[in-house]
């Protein structure tokens, strides 16, 4: 008897019929909300100053300096173009970390808005992702210039946006999933904080997965980020192309985005009651 | 037109705060699900015709705001139906999403976006908004430098830029001083004259008497009645005096 009542409380059985404004207008409105929220987040993040951006670069730069020292002077890495290799890995990983944490923080920060105004909650995650994409693109631009100065132009560099897009899709998909979990479990932030550390060492950031011995390399390839990072370096640094590898990566990145998006959407109408 | 049929909303009130994965796992393992159910709204049915100005009154915690939130899609109904055949604009709080570190101008654009306006549209409206809120001199000041009253005025001036055939208004008339109150009053009369359907939650019985064509009284999540303004205000005063 009690359980039947509980069920009805958990699963909303009520119906809501509403005539919304025409679709194109609705879409334009949503894109506009994403843009304005992203701009606001970006400005808050960097405190409206160029110096703010430099501070945000401090962490990846310090990481770069430490790992560079350790892996050239202590462990003697034999990876070609190691500084650029390392930098590409670190800023891409930093984006993944930034994007996933921002999604959870952004959902918490916008709980007040969610309780007062209705709009699809997916826009919050799209906006927080966009903010992180913006910083990532600035970092990439710097990296591109460094690559150009050091190595000159190689044709496959033009393909780099493809794995970058894969990384954006994959990270946004994971962000949707984490944000959904975060709404139910507030310690998701701490749990994820430990997990990203594991993910860091299971990703080819400071080391090269293609020269690892067998059982370990399979384990590292099990991490979806691995293929994306490998692809970015193939195109950006080594002018190397493998079609099957690329197709696989594009497929699972898109899948992860779609899955995350639909899971979040399934729960989005309950979010305002969970905060 | 707004039609509400047998609408109920149940909230769970947990006995212990369980918001982490750890606590949830713990309660699954020990098989203790500790919460009470609370009907914020129970079997509410009413119908509002286009162009009606309807007051919703009730004691604190009677479910007025929950009702507005369900009409504006913020909360999901537990059971029952809500049928709304028109575009709806909920005005539940002023200045939602205001950033205290941003300038007045930037806040106008941001709040406008959340209400469905593009940056260009807001830039066209900015003079009107500043004039209405009497904040022309502060357009580039940071929002936190403004007094609470000024911020509310700004919020109101931005919010009334969007007009939908149905508007839900939760207690926002109590904004600013007498002069500004008069201005707000004229805005509401204007909406009423233009045939906008308005649902208006308020504790200010004078205001309800002034605007409303009919009144809905809610108590403990149940509909006490929906009828003529004077009759329903009478019912409500009786309800309050009994408790």
Helix-strand layout with pairing:
The complex is a heterodimer of chains A (275) and B (243).
Chain A: H1 2-10, E1 15-18, H2 23-45, H3 50-74, H4 82-109, H5 111-114, H6 122-151, H7 161-184, H8 188-201, H9 214-221, H10 224-238, H11 243-267, H12 271-274
Helix pairs in contact in A: 2-6, 3-4, 4-6, 4-7, 4-8, 4-10, 6-7, 7-10, 7-11, 10-11
Chain B: E1 2-14, H1 21-30, E2 35-48, E3 53-57, H2 64-71, E4 79-84, E5 88-91, H3 104-114, H4 119-133, H5 148-159, E6 166-170, H6 178-193, E7 197-201, H7 205-211, E8 214-219, E9 222-228, H8 229-242
Helix pairs in contact in B: 3-4, 3-5, 4-5
Q: How would you summarize this macromolecular structure in one to three sentences?
A:
Chain A is mostly helical and 275 residues long. Chain A is built from twelve helices and one strand.
If you had to describe this structure to a student in words, what would you say it looks like?
The complex is a heterodimer of chains A (275) and B (243). Chain A has 275 residues and is mostly helical. Chain A has one domain. Chain A is 76% helix and 1% strand. Chain A contains twelve helices and one strand; from the N terminus they run αβααααααααααα. In chain A, α4 runs antiparallel to α6. The longest helix of chain A has 30 residues. Chain B has two domains: 129 residues, Rossmann fold; 69 residues, rRNA adenine dimethylase, C-terminal domain (Helicase, Ruva Protein, domain 3). Chain B has eight helices and nine strands. In chain B, β6, α6 and β7 form a beta-alpha-beta unit. In chain B, α3 crosses α4, α3 crosses α5 and α4 crosses α5. The mean pLDDT of chain B is 87. Chain B is of the alpha/beta class and 243 residues long. Helix content of chain B is 38%, strand content 27%. Chain B has a six-stranded mixed sheet with strand order 5-6-7-3-8-9, sandwiched between helices. In chain B, strands 2-1-4 form a three-stranded antiparallel sheet, with helices on one face. The two termini of chain B are 34 Å apart. Classes of the chains: A mainly alpha (275), B alpha/beta (243).
């Amino acid at each position: 008897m009690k359980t039947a009542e509980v069920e009805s409380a958990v699963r909303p059985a009520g119906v809501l019929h509403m005539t919304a404004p025409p679709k194109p207008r609705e879409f334009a409105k949503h894109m506009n909300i994403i843009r304005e929220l992203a701009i606001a987040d970006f400005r808050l993040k960097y405190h409206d100053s160029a110096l703010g951006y430099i501070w945000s670069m401090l962490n990846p730069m310090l990481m770069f300096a430490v790992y560079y020292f350790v892996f050239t002077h202590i462990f003697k890495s034999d990876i070609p173009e190691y500084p650029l290799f390392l930098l590409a890995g670190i800023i891409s990983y930093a984006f993944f970390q930034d994007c996933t944490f921002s999604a959870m923080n952004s959902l918490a920060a916008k709980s007040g808005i969610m309780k007062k105004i209705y709009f699809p909650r997916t826009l919050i995650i799209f906006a927080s992702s966009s903010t992180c994409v913006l910083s990532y693109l600035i970092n990439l631009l710097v990296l591109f210039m460094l690559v150009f100065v050091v190595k000159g132009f190689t044709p496959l560099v033009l393909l780099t946006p493809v794995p970058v897009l894969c990384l954006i899709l994959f990270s946004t998909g994971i962000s949707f999933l984490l944000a959904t979990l975060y709404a139910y479990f507030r310690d998701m932030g701490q749990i994820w904080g430990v997990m990203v550390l594991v993910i860091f060492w299971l990703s080819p950031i400071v080391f090269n997965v293609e020269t690892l011995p067998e059982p370990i390399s399979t384990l590292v390839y099990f991490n979806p980020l691995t293929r994306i990072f490998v692809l970015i370096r193939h195109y950006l640094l080594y002018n190397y192309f493998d079609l099957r590898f690329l197709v696989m990566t594009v497929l699972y990145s898109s899948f992860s985005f779609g899955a995350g998006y639909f899971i979040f959407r399934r729960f989005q109408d309950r979010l305002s009651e969970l905060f | 037109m707004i039609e509400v049929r047998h609408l109920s909303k149940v909230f769970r009130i947990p006995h212990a705060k369980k918001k982490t994965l750890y606590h949830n796992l713990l309660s699954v393992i020990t098989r203790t699900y500790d919460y009470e159910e609370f009907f914020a709204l129970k079997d509410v049915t009413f119908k509002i015709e286009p162009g009606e100005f309807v007051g919703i009154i009730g004691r604190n915690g009677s479910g007025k705001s929950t009702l507005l939130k369900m009409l504006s899609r913020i909360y999901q109904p537990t059971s029952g139906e809500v049928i709304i055949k028109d575009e709806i604009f909920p005005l539940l709080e002023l200045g939602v999403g205001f950033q205290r570190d941003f300038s007045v101008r930037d806040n106008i654009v941001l709040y406008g976006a959340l209400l469905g306006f593009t940056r260009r549209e807001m830039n066209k409206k900015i003079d009107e908004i500043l004039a209405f809120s009497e904040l022309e001199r502060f357009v580039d000041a940071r929002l936190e430098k403004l007094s609470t009253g000024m911020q509310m005025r700004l919020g109101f001036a931005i919010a009334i830029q969007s007009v939908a055939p149905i508007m839900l208004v939760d207690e926002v008339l109590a904004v600013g001083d007498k002069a500004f109150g008069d201005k707000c009053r004229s805005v509401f009369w204007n909406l009423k004259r233009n045939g906008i359907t308005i649902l208006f939650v308020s504790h200010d019985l004078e205001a309800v008497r002034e605007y409303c064509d009919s009144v809905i009284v809610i108590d403990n999540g149940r509909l006490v009645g929906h009828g003529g303004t004077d009759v329903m205000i009478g019912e409500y005063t009786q309800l309050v005096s009994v408790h």
